[in-house]
Amino acid sequence: MIGPEVLSAALDILNHEGPDGFTVRAIAQRAKVAPMAIYNHFDGLNGVLEELWIQGFKIFNEALTFHTEDAKDDLYHAALGYRRFALEHRGLYTVMFLRRFRYFLPSNTAIEVAHQSFQTFLNNVERSQKAGWFKDAKAIDAAQVMWSACHGYVSLELLGVNFSADPADPDEAFQLLLLTLRDGFR
Amino acid sequence: MIGPEVLSAALDILNHEGPDGFTVRAIAQRAKVAPMAIYNHFDGLNGVLEELWIQGFKIFNEALTFHTEDAKDDLYHAALGYRRFALEHRGLYTVMFLRRFRYFLPSNTAIEVAHQSFQTFLNNVERSQKAGWFKDAKAIDAAQVMWSACHGYVSLELLGVNFSADPADPDEAFQLLLLTLRDGFR
DNA sequence: CCAAACTATAGAACGACGTTCTACAATGGT
DNA sequence: ACCATTGTAGAACGTCGTTCTATAGTTTGG
Hints:
The structure is a homodimer.
Chain A: H1 3-17, H2 24-30, H3 37-41, H4 44-64, H5 71-88, H6 90-98, H7 108-130, H8 139-159, H9 170-185
Helix pairs in contact in A: 1-2, 1-6, 4-5, 4-6, 4-7, 5-6, 5-7, 5-8, 7-8, 8-9
Chain A binds a DNA duplex through helix 3.
């Protein structure tokens, strides 16, 4: 098999050298494969990105999935899982959410799997709403708010936009974000 | 003068064709200028981006600046201004916050003006804190939280990541985000 | 069992990119 | 009027994603 090696080489490059090093020739070289192989086994560079996107959302979906008897706790862990996924798989997060690749447009099926992840998150919101959170806000709006906040925090963190001059504990700042949203929605 | 035409051509392309169309030759053609001019009058493509960055943060800074007697109201308007800036100057916002340009790294002075904008925002947070908001959170953490939330919402909006299937009023969803944060911090 | 048909391969090649080089024209201070 | 400096156009270089070409390998049908 040659596909998996190409994907893991692509991911290696993405994680260690960032999007600027993500080229057909670099991927092929690291996978010890001819550049042409990327066109034989994938649909070019976009095909590789598409595959990473889909695998990424599969992992991401698991990181968001919590289903105990305590819905509010599940939602909290889903938000923590959101950030943990981004930090542990920053290459995948870049593909999925930061759009840093020229001419890459996810296919319809790729967009579909992304929506499924949002649905997973939305389910936790709805369960929490039954448990008394989120007042009378529409669940989908509340979910979008929480999702946006997580994405904003995490993407600034990944991009290294460090406004707080000193590197105060970033875990704590994220927690403040979550607790503030929780209190605001209560 | 030739610099301004190059910059406005670059901005035009960025606003109307997105980062993928942002090339030296395309900018030069639209500015009716030889490609070399971009190296004579700027430091290459990165120099153009740097100039857009600096001009962008100048406008951005104004969009965040409110200073009436009502600090809380000022902060609310600053957050609205954040989003309005992004929607009205999406090209600039892309340069400043989305990092979609290969090999572009802002200089130290460019990072400095970005920090000044955060400082403007932070000032509003501190004034609001004196007026009773934000409990005992550190002002800088509270500012980072609000900034992250704004950035997350706006960047998903700009990238067209539209999870709410129906295009429900996006103004309203942003307002929900702000009000939730306000209530959470109170 | 072998010829034929398909498939993967390496490597050159193409157009576009950012950037640099190379002459040549324009300009301005003395 | 001279020459040093500066801006110009356009070709050229290396790299990018992608395609083409010719060859080697593998499968398949009789």
